[in-house]
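To: structure subgroup
Subject: Chain for Friday's discussion

All,

I'm putting the inputs and outputs inline so they're searchable in the archive.
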Amino acid sequence: MKKEILIGFLVAVFATICGFYLYVELFSKFSFDETLKIIKEQNLFGKVLGLAAIPNLFVFFIFLKKKQDYRARGVLMATILTVIIMLIMKFL
């Protein structure tokens, strides 16, 4: 059971990282490094992280459709952790 939750958590973290990378590459006119500097300077990391977590939605529903409820729980836990990080970033 714990192993399945961990797998879901790790899949969600990987999906968020991939979502972040794809968002930066597809929607920015600048290079990856320049975009990261702009995000840091304008304090947009929380907002971009929120958009990067959208692939978790697809992963969550795939796990539910395959009746892998514990993995879906792991995805949900990772998404909640992402929201907490976004809130911390907003208030710092």
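Points worth raising on Friday:
The first helix runs from residue 2 to 27.
The CA atoms of residues 13 and 81 lie 10 Å apart.

D.
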